[in-house]
Amino acid sequence: MTSQLSAKPPSESLTNMTLMMGVDHGNTAGFVHGGSIMKLVDEAAGVASMRHCRGRVVTAQVDSLSFLAPVHMGDVLSIVAHVTQAWTTSMEVEVEVNRENPRTGEGELTTRAYLTMVAVDEDGHPVSVPPILAETASELRDQRKAEARRSARIELRSRLELQ
Ligand SMILES: CC(C)(COP(=O)(O)OP(=O)(O)OC[C@H]1O[C@@H](n2cnc3c(N)ncnc32)[C@H](O)[C@@H]1OP(=O)(O)O)[C@@H](O)C(=O)NCCC(=O)NCCS
User: Is the CB of 132 within 6 Å of ligand 1?
Assistant: First the structure.
């Protein structure tokens, strides 16, 4: 399946979500559950990949998800996602989550994740996606790193299948 679709820059998929973490998201110690953050990461990756392919998507794999700092109840989360690379029917999305104490302005990067999303038709069969048009130095670097992650993923899968 070769893509005949016009290439799109990563900026077309850029997704920003901002929300305050309340008691629904947290535990009794005052921290936000990792699972609550994972759900938001998946939602942001879904929106970014749909903006790129303008169709339905499913999450095929969470390639990595690192919790770098805890999130506290009352923090405002800013979730930023964009497509870093697109192949035949799949796309890699980078998602970063920043927290901010809205009263003081203090904040930091708390989570970084890479997900593989696949475009599908109404029957759930994979369909072609537009290529990525990387133009800036940062977009080209993102694209190279996405290729390296995909190669590593494919190599790992084939090594594990040989065992
Ligand atoms: C993802 C899914 C559509 C792939 O279908 P499939 O018939 O295996 O399709 P293919 O083998 O032709 O692979 C299609 C693409 O998905 C990629 N892919 C499939 N499984 C993958 C995995 N586990 N991890 C990363 N990429 C994967 C392939 O590399 C291929 O990418 P490319 O076309 O860009 O080269 C199918 O496995 C599925 O529906 N999974 C369930 C998804 C789901 O329910 N997610 C949670 C809720 S959204």
Answer: no
What's the CA-to-centroid distance between 89 and ligand 1, angstroms? 8
Q: Whose CA is nearest to atom 17 of ligand 1?
A: 90
Contacts of 36 (CB under 8 A, 6+ apart): 21, 24, 25, 26
Q: How far is the CA of 74 from the centre of ligand 1 (A)?
A: 37
What is the C-alpha to C-alpha distance for residues 72 and 100, in angstroms, rounded to an integer?
9
CATH of 10-162, one of 3.40.1190.10, 3.40.50.300, 3.30.420.40, 3.10.129.10: 3.10.129.10
17-29: per-residue pLDDT in tens? 999 999 888 888 8
Average pLDDT over every residue of 148-152: 96
Does the beta carbon of 152 lie inside 6 Å of ligand 1? no
Each residue of 137-147: b (16+ CB within 10 Å) or e?
A: eebeebbeebe
